[in-house]
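User: I want to check something. If I give you two sequences, will you return the structure for each one separately, not as a complex?

Assistant: Yes, each is folded on its own. Here is the first sequence with its structure:
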Amino acid sequence: MAADPTLFQAGLWLGVASGLLAALTVAAFIVGWGFRFRLVGVTSFTALLAISCWAFSVSYVPRISVPGAVQVPIVFDNGGDLVVAAAPAGLAPEAVAPTVEQVARNLRASGRVSPTGVVRVRLRGLDNGDDGRSTPRVLAEAQRDLAHNTITLVP
């Protein structure tokens, strides 16, 4: 799925421009123009932009949004089987389960090294103590099976 048709079109037009610039660069070397080496830089940079736009537009995957969920930052990810996200202060109790599910759905499976193929996703909040210190508390946990692409909320 393309991120934006405009980005895909920009990649195509930059590809055409880099082809035309390549032909102009070859002509500049044949004729012996003084700025031929500058054309090499401009041509290669334009080709790099074309390839980058095309690759991003082809590989982009939009984020999944779960109704009732709140956007939260991931504060710990070991690259394997554990991801921890931080809940904002005052998060409504009915938003906890959708939020941890949204974080689990937006995990990418590529590059993860999990011995069991399951990633635990925890949503943690902070409890403020009487002495001014806060302690972390797990609000909810979900498990995402990367092999079967399933999510299970842990009670």
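And separately, the second sequence with its own structure:
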Amino acid sequence: MTDEHLEQTEQQPEPEVDALDAVTRERDDYLDALQRLKAEFDNYRKRVARDQRELAARAHERLMKELVPVLDDLERALEAATEHEEARLEEGVRLVHRSLADALAREGLVQIDTDGKFDPHTQEALLSQPSEAEEGSVIQVLQKGYSLGDRVLRPARVVISAGPPEPTPETSA
């Protein structure tokens, strides 16, 4: 019996060693998978950052290509100014303005509409003054506003009507 008992006690540690080996292998497999996932994520993060830099560089390059002709037009206007040809200078400045406005419009810049009622989402009221116009309507634009896509880059700065002027009581003497 003692030999049999010894054989049983020798056989019991084997399943514990096998279980420990299995758990260790499983742990190593999980660690390996986690390390691979971490490396893949790092590579993905680096690739996305590189792609974003390249996209920004291409957009910047495209904008510069749009603005170089405007720079050329401005140089021509400055040459006309040195020759004191006022008509050519005005024409040159108008050409530069038109070229720049067209280039910015191609990039999605839109002038904010200021006709009609005051819109606090796209306009900034700097003054309110009595006017024959309806109360709350825009009566003067002090600075144009612009939007790019659905975002306001700069609100239009306007003067709005406070309604008709109140009659002043006449003083009788």
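Because they were folded independently, the notes below concern the second chain alone. The chain has two domains: 1-107, 110-173. Strands lie at 109-111, 123-129, 138-143, 146-148, 151-154, 156-161.
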